[in-house]
UniProtKB/TrEMBL annotation:
<protein>
    <submittedName>
        <fullName>Glycosyltransferase family 4 protein</fullName>
    </submittedName>
</protein>
<dbReference type="Pfam" id="PF00534">
    <property type="entry name" value="Glycos_transf_1"/>
</dbReference>
<keyword id="KW-0808">Transferase</keyword>
<dbReference type="InterPro" id="IPR001296">
    <property type="entry name" value="Glyco_trans_1"/>
</dbReference>
<feature type="domain" description="Glycosyl transferase family 1">
    <location>
        <begin position="201"/>
        <end position="354"/>
    </location>
</feature>
Length: 378
């Protein structure tokens, strides 16, 4: 079987889709699948995207989510993939398009596309996307509908996305499979953690958006934990710089750490190794690969039950998924519970590692994808 990984940016680049696309490519390369890549961007596309965004903003007066959710953008990428595929002497069995609705929607190529989104447009609008006007939203939804219809196969990383394809797009689910994403960090063998005799408890938050990742709630949580406590709780935030005039104690900001940079990757790995809890009060999350990374390190996670999170953090098993209207007090209560009940903490840590091994890794993703495609061919 031959699979071509198609992406607007270089599929091998760890910056593309936060490293998800490159991990898909790498794990397929290390399997029995024959794999290659197609990059759609060229020198012209950067200028064309800027031009189109300018037209929508200043002439059409429409707020769009991004270039890919416009009809102009989707038709452009459809023509780009058709041109490249038409030049190929030998076609692949499947063309895997991570987050590739705009690639598939208007393509006229007679090939088998695999659509691999982390969510549908209908889920994303008024969730990740805000303030999109009705006309732009309808077009974005139409592009997703066409991609879902035209794709030979669809793989999604959560029940949240799976149910949307079924209920919002009324798709024949025989061609759809739920396959969890893996961790976008190098594998590290870990053992279950303990809090025995620990007087300093470390909390970790990894995210680049202050509001969406719920940083204010995490800050208030660490404040509550340090009140009248015999232990010291320290929160480390990776992905954001320390704001000016920030004076709260027991909080460290590490800034953005680039996984493509070996030194910065090691710094990030050290933070995961040294932490006791992963806390992320995220307001919106399609999947949350950071949860797979925390599971690999055996770190109990406390987060919100939103989007596709429940597929990556199993409530009361690998951590806690709180209701979206819960606040810092509820986050602090869950952490205090596990600090008090060390045996429970150790069990949750062990569960997280097992869940990573069973489901939240790219090797399992690759195997499940191959099984799904081979079953379809039989």
């Amino acid at each position: 079987m031959k699979i071509t990984v198609v992406s607007i940016s270089d599929p091998k680049d760890k910056r593309t889709w936060s490293g998800t696309t490159s991990h898909m490519y790498e794990t397929l390369s290390n399997s029995e699948v024959d794999v290659d890549t197609i990059t759609l961007k060229n020198w012209f596309t950067k200028f064309y995207i800027r031009y189109v965004r300018f037209i929508y903003k200043f002439f059409r007066k429409q707020k769009i989510a991004n270039f890919e959710t416009t009809e102009i953008g989707a038709k452009y990428w459809g023509k780009r993939i058709d041109k490249i595929i038409n030049k190929q002497q030998s076609k692949s069995d499947f063309y895997l398009c991570p987050a590739g609705a705009s690639v598939i929607a208007y393509s006229n190529s007679d090939v088998n596309f695999i659509y691999a989104p982390d969510a549908t447009y209908k889920l994303m609008n008024n969730y990740y996307y805000s303030g999109i006007d009705g006309k732009s939203a309808n077009i974005g939804d139409k592009i997703d509908s066409l991609a879902i219809k035209n794709a030979a196969k669809i793989i999604v990383p959560s029940k949240w996305a799976y149910n949307s394809i079924s209920q919002d797009y009324l798709q024949n689910m025989d061609k759809v499979s739920l396959i969890h994403f893996g961790s976008n960090m190098p594998f590290q063998r870990t053992v279950s953690r303990t809090l025995d005799n620990k007087n300093v408890i470390n909390l970790l938050l990894v995210g680049v958006e202050w509001k969406r990742k719920g940083v204010d709630i995490a800050l208030e949580t660490v404040n509550l934990l340090n009140r009248d406590s015999t232990k010291q709780y320290i929160l480390t935030i990776v992905g954001l710089d320390k704001p000016k005039d920030f004076k709260q104690k027991n909080v460290n900001f590490k800034g953005k750490l680039n996984k493509n940079n070996e030194r910065e990757l090691k710094l990030l790995q050290r933070e995961y190794n040294n932490t006791d809890f992963f806390i992320m009060p995220t307001q919106a999350e399609a999947a949350g690969i950071v949860f797979a990374e925390a599971a690999m390190y055996g770190i109990p996670t406390i987060t919100y039950k939103t989007g596709g999170v429940s597929d990556y953090v199993l409530n009361n098993k690998t951590g806690f998924t709180l209701e979206i209207n819960d606040g810092a007090m509820q986050f602090a209560e869950k952490i205090r519970l596990l600090v008090k009940e060390n045996k429970l903490y150790e069990q949750i840590s062990k569960n997280a590692i097992e869940y990573y091994k069973d489901s939240l890794n790219w090797r399992t993703w690759s195997k499940n994808l191959a099984d799904f495609l081979e079953k379809a061919n039989n």
